[in-house]
Amino acid sequence: MxxxxxxxxxxxxxxxxxxxxxxxxxxxxxAVLTGLTDALNPRFLSPQSLKDLMLNVSIIALLVLGQTxxxxxxxxxxxxxxxxxxxxxxxxxxxxxxxxxxxxxxxLIAVLAGFLLGTVNAALIAWGKIPALITTLxxxxxxxxxxxxxxxxxxxNATNVxxxxxxxxxxxxxGVPILTWIVLVLLILFSIGLRQYRAGREYYAIGSNPxxxxxxxxxxxxxVATGFILSGAIAxxxxxxxxxxxxxxxxxxxxxxxxxxxxxxxxxxxxxxxxVGTVFGAVxxxxxxxxxxxxxxxxxxxxxxxxxxxxxxxxxxxxxxxYLAYRYALRSRVRWSHV
Amino acid sequence: MESRMSENQSNTRRLARRVSxxxxxAFLVLIAIAGxxxxxxxxxxxxxxxxxxxxxxxxxxxxxxxxxxxxxSEIDLSVASMLGLSSSLLGLLWEYKLAMPLGIVIxxxxxxxxxxxxxFLIVRFRLPSLAVTIGTLALxxxxxxxxxxxxxxxxxxxxxxxxxxxxxxYTFLPWPFLLFIVLALxxxxxxxxxxxxRSIYAIGGNQTAARFSGINIDRLKMLLFIASGIxxxxxxxxxxFRFSSSRADNGTGFELSAIAxxxxxxxxxxxxxxxxxxxxxxxxxxxxxxxVLTLADxxxxxxxxxxxxxxxxSILLPNLIASTHERLRLIQRQREIAKLGxxxxxx
Lengths: 339, 347
Hints:
The complex is a heterodimer of chains A (339) and B (347).
Chain A: H1 3-12, H2 14-20, H3 22-40, H4 47-72, H5 80-97, H6 103-127, H7 132-151, H8 163-170, E1 172-173, E2 176-177, H9 178-196, H10 198-208, H11 210-215, H12 220-246, H13 257-267, H14 279-298, H15 306-337
Antiparallel strand pairs in A: 1-2
Helix pairs in contact in A: 1-2, 3-14, 4-9, 4-10, 4-12, 4-13, 4-14, 5-6, 5-7, 5-12, 6-7, 6-12, 8-12, 9-10, 10-12, 13-14, 13-15
Chain B: H1 2-18, H2 21-39, H3 46-55, H4 57-71, H5 79-95, H6 100-123, H7 129-148, E1 152-153, H8 158-165, H9 175-193, H10 195-205, H11 207-212, H12 217-243, E2 246-247, H13 254-264, H14 276-295, H15 300-346
Antiparallel strand pairs in B: 1-2
């Protein structure tokens, strides 16, 4: 799938491919971390804490799906946390102002709202030709500011939200929370979409080499716009699910989670320089970050350390990707020199 | 008809050449002052201007080295986190009864170290500055939380607090503003009147050409990131004294205003363009707009809508103007070709 793995398939076969994939090392890391923490504190693998872990990772993993598509194209979307904040409050507000509204209707409206906010980003980036970083840094604060102005100190409580909707975040099916099932289904759809479909391959092509993508006849602007609209719609869905998971929402909901999402995606092997990575890896990155922060909690490390660890992990992941790319470049130079 | 159009167009182009971005900004600043005076009778008072100038000092300080970094077509998103780290460290050192001057020096040194880390990762490992400084944005803010947690240190000695809130003798100019004026002059001379400044423009204009003309790009970029670290730490110290408060979340989100000021000041995203005068004028403009809205009781979170919009507009507007120019030129060329075609047919 990635550049390295294709190369290794030619020369070494599937065993070494398996070992070289980022997914494998992530699974190993997660296993080691879980094993160590469990040895120190056996409650770590209790059904309740496993359920908590799955719930914690689900919304981040969902946002990671959208961010993967964005980072694959060498872009970035910082505004997702504000979109989640707005749509989470919007969902709660709908239940308050329209009692008896069906849950699915609320979810659809939240997705639509996310879609519209994503369209604002898309228009500015694809047609206004403003770099994604600047656009989404601006809209991160514009959307959040609009949210503050609209919410105006109000708060949604769990008592305002029907129990059937909160059940998405609490009840389980086959031992796995409904919330996690939703994310798993989307993960599989995204994985197939990015692997098998033309649109999916175009995301990779744009990130690998934007100029080549244009020459290959890909409508880059439209593809980039679609990516940001998709990311917005997913953030809208995440907003509705945020309400189902936490029940309590105010103007500060989800503030700052864009850093967790970007870190998860990059730790999961989606190179910040574009064109490399899979959604499975990115979601494993989210899982690793989540396991890591639970480990810190179980080891009684103050929660104030979390953010610094996250920043450090992001830096290590970026450096690792750059090192792998450098090694790959060296190896391919040797290989091609025979021709 | 065609001649009239091209005449129009050359007029606008001549106008565009004569009216620089800085003149436009100066004009906007005047409009903002006039508007502020009209909207609020408290606006044009010495006390309010003292507030206005003091309120943007930290962001103004951080915007100076950031402008230079953006001109070399890199970016530093971690400035606000370095401010927070420096503020927290200063509070913690003061709590441990360290002499204040020593504490200040240590904070500046830590700022330099933070900048060195940014520069090292970007220059040595050739990592994109955007990604690196998103990482250090989280890392440095995380360090601030590790140092102070959710505590606040507030009992700073009165003479330092006086530096933060007092005005220069017999004027309405706050002391920290003097600091900004001095640094702005230094950066102005550096960027516009030294070879270092020419090198910075050269790197932003064409990095490869700059390398072949013998500019030590790596060292210069490294120094710029270190300068950004030191000055962000300085901004953290000013912030701490101004509010007599050291907290881990001090200055969260300030990077938005600093970056907005840089781009609104006429520094382009592609690098290679921009002046200190422009950045100072755009800082003044943002300061006045924020002040007028604050006087009108607009909440600070809502104010960020304005700052965010200014950031986007400052890039969108030149892009739209450029693309309109391009389209006009294409139309004109098509017409010329059509004219040539008919001319040859009649022959």
